Amino acid sequence: MTKVIIDTDTGVDDGMGLLYALVSPEIQVVGVTTSFGNVDVEKVTRNTAICMERLGSTAPLARGAERAIAGEAPTFNPQIHGHDGFGNANLPDPEYSNLVDVSAAELTIRLVDENPGELTYIGLGPLTNLALAVLLDPSLPQRLTRVVWMGGAAAHHGNVTPVAEADALHDPEAAAVVIGENWEFVQVGLDVTDETVFGVDDLQTVRQSSSPAAQLVAAGAPSYMDFYEPILGRYGCAMHSPLTIAVVAHPELVLAEQKYRMHVELTGTYTRGMTVVDRRVGRVGGPVWSNAPLITVITDVDRAAFITRYVQRITA
Ligand SMILES: [Ca+2]
Fold this sequence. Notes:
Layout: E1 2-8, H1 12-23, E2 27-34, H2 41-54, E3 61-62, H3 78-81, H4 104-114, E4 119-123, H5 128-136, H6 140-143, E5 146-150, H7 166-170, H8 172-179, E6 184-188, H9 190-193, E7 197-199, H10 200-207, H11 212-232, E8 236-238, H12 240-249, E9 254-264, E10 275-278, H13 287-290, E11 294-301, H14 303-315
Parallel strand pairs: 1-2, 1-4, 2-3, 4-5, 5-6, 6-11
Antiparallel strand pairs: 7-8, 9-10, 9-11
Helix pairs in contact: 1-2, 1-11, 1-12, 4-5, 5-8
Bound molecules: calcium ion.
């Protein structure tokens, strides 16, 4: 069993991922932290608390960053995740029984101290909270050994701009801080998540289940699938965050990965937030690239097997 801390900007697909993590025995969720991203951090924390309480999770939940580390005010697109950030599902307020009175960065440091060398950090949103944690405690990478992030793209277009993915663009400076640290960093980017689709048949199966996880997915997913329909050309949605959970819970679903050097674009006129990955072979890159952080990029997954397993788990 892999112990994980999940940082999330719930978000429909993030909620779908968090629920999947909470019902998967291969991983133990020891803590959850929230960040601005898909919606503001209050709505994110509300949606996250709802998911945790409905599934009976007793893990601590900490509210995190409301804006990027450079202070940039966030902008939100309610047409994607709904005004509530959960597909306009109109869910009743949670009790916030898991909420602790420390920041996301502080809870992260505490959990890593309690589980040195054992935790995998799963980032489903901007990397703001982890950047703040490592700025508070620069020794963190010695005890937190692996970071798995849904964000960016290596050889794929962006989703907010032609080259930038949402989580990367929400806080490029934080992503640059985190990626530059000395830990194993795994990117689960749009390369693999954008074409991993939860479709109309999957929704139908989920609707027939009375499990708490299935009921939440059935409530949140439809409007997100409406948003994706013209993008995908069929009714469905990209499984960004759920696939990232699967990379940790079911590593056998990963069919290919590559070690690449990567920088995050901070200043480009049209390219801010792009994860610039050096996929060249045999070229002389100069020190800017030969010294760039070396990360693991997931480049292929068993999409069909993943979707099958996701639906099985959520409906069980
Ligand atoms: Ca997200």
